[in-house]
């Protein structure tokens, strides 16, 4: 066989299909960025609540510049998201689309998730340098990280705590009603602890996070409400030997970012009372690449992992597990760090994550 015969034939149809796909990719990327902007500005919510508005009327209602708004509407109309009546020059967001793009649609509001695209793009230059040097990033490199994570967690985790997540551990809700000690390790915005402190006044709640600015707004809100059963503390848990004893410890999307995930889990295991419960939520992907190919969210999750989770861990001197460290690795780590039993759960409302119940 000659060298010429070894070269596979160029498939024109395959090339054309790929090019067409990437035209779609560019357009969908543009739509994602504009959806994020529309979510943050409240435009999608306003269109859903008040259909058949002209651009002038919508601009006046929401308090934005009409000229900029018209360009945004151009993206949404040509993408097939917003309907346009050329004769009346009015716009409407169909209810079938609003069901996935407005705050009222939580936890199905995918407009929240589009914010991760802009967040990742904001560190592209820095990440390009890290690709070459192997160094990491720090939380302060991401201007809106805590804000976006808090909003994402609010609809997937916080809104479903009492009804769907806490019942994964039988009897836990009843114990919270009676009064127990609870800690959230890596609490971020602290909204989970705030909700539980409101719902279970007999229990005592503690939020720990490396960054005080992450929970500053929640702390202020709790103070304004006069909540006496909720405290937050800025603490570097990566080097802590003990932070107290608790009946319930939670960690929501926090373990894989740590400098030393196993040490973090050992700290949690030591912090549980003998009848305590550890509730962990983390990305529900697999550590085996081939098992993620059929996951419709896999490209998004790997993007978030490469742009944030992996460099954040490396920046702390960690192993860079990344968001796609896998349910398999999570289960192994929990077993290796002293948890006598581990249960893994999937919940219908949350296609992205897995939920783990560990007991000492």
Radius of gyration: 23 Å
Distance between the ends: 64 Å
- Strand composition percent: 15-25%
How many domain modules? 2
What order do the strands of the largest sheet run in, or round the barrel if closed? 6-5-4-7-8-10-9
Per CATH, what is the topology of the largest domain?
A: Rossmann fold
The CATH architecture of the largest domain can be named as 3-Layer(aba) Sandwich
How many strands appear in the DSSP assignment?
A: 10
Q: CATH homologous superfamily of the largest domain? A: Vaccinia Virus protein VP39
CATH class of the largest domain: Alpha Beta
The largest sheet is:
7 strands, mixed
Number of helices: 17
Shape estimate: globular
Question: What string gives the helices and strands in order?
Answer: HHHEHHEEHHHHHHEHEHEEHEHHHEE
Q: Helical residue percent?
A: 40-55%
Explain what this protein looks like in three dimensions.
- This protein has 360 residues and is of the alpha/beta class.
- The chain has two domains: 3-103, Orthogonal Bundle (Arc Repressor Mutant, subunit A); 119-359, Rossmann fold (3-Layer(aba) Sandwich), CATH 3.40.50.150.
- It is 48% helix and 17% strand.
- The chain is built from 17 helices and ten strands.
- It has helices at 3-6, 12-41, 43-49, 55-62, 66-78, 95-98, 110-121, 124-133, 145-156, 161-165, 172-178, 191-199, 216-225, 261-271, 289-292, 298-315, 327-336; strands spanning 53-54, 83-85, 90-92, 181-185, 204-209, 230-234, 246-252, 272-283, 341-347, 350-359.
- The strands form two sheets. The protein has a seven-stranded mixed sheet, with helices on both faces. It has a three-stranded antiparallel sheet with strand order 1-3-2.
- A hairpin with a 2-residue loop joins strand 9 and strand 10 (350-359).
- It is globular.
- The model has no long low-confidence stretch (mean pLDDT 93).
């Amino acid at each position: 066989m000659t060298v010429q015969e070894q070269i596979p034939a160029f498939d024109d149809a395959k090339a054309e299909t790929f090019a067409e796909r990437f035209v779609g990719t560019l357009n969908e990327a543009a739509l994602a960025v504009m959806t994020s902007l529309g979510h943050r500005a409240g435009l999608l919510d306003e269109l859903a609540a008040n259909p058949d508005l002209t651009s002038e009327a919508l601009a006046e209602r929401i308090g934005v510049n009409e000229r900029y708004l018209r360009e945004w509407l151009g993206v949404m109309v040509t993408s097939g998201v917003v309907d346009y009546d050329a004769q009346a020059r009015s716009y409407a967001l169909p209810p079938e689309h609003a069901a996935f793009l407005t705050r009222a649609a939580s936890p199905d509001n995918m407009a929240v998730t589009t914010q991760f695209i802009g967040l990742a793009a904001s560190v592209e230059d820095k990440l390009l340098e890290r690709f070459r040097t192997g160094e990491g990033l720090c939380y302060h490199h991401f201007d809106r990280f805590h804000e976006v994570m808090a909003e994402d967690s609010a609809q997937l985790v916080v809104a479903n705590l009492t009804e769907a997540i806490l019942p994964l551990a039988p009897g836990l809700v009843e114990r919270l009603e009676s009064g127990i000690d609870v800690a959230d390790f890596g609490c971020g915005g602290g909204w989970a602890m705030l909700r539980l402190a409101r719902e279970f006044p007999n229990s005592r709640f503690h939020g720990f996070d490396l960054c005080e600015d992450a929970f500053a707004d929640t702390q202020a809100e709790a103070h304004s409400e006069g909540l006496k059963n909720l405290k937050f503390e800025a603490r570097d848990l990566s080097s802590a030997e003990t932070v107290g004893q608790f009946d319930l410890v939670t960690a929501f999307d926090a373990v894989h970012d740590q400098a030393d995930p196993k040490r973090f889990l050992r700290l949690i295991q030591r912090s549980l009372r003998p009848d305590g419960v550890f509730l962990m939520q983390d990305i529900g992907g697999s550590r085996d690449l081939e098992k993620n190919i059929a996951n419709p969210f896999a490209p998004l999750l790997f993007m978030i992992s490469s742009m944030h989770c992996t460099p954040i861990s490396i920046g702390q001197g960690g192993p860079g597990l990344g968001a796609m460290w896998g349910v398999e690795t999570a289960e192994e780590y929990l077993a290796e760090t002293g948890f006598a039993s581990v249960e893994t759960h999937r919940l219908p409302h949350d296609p992205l994550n897995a939920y783990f119940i560990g007991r000492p």
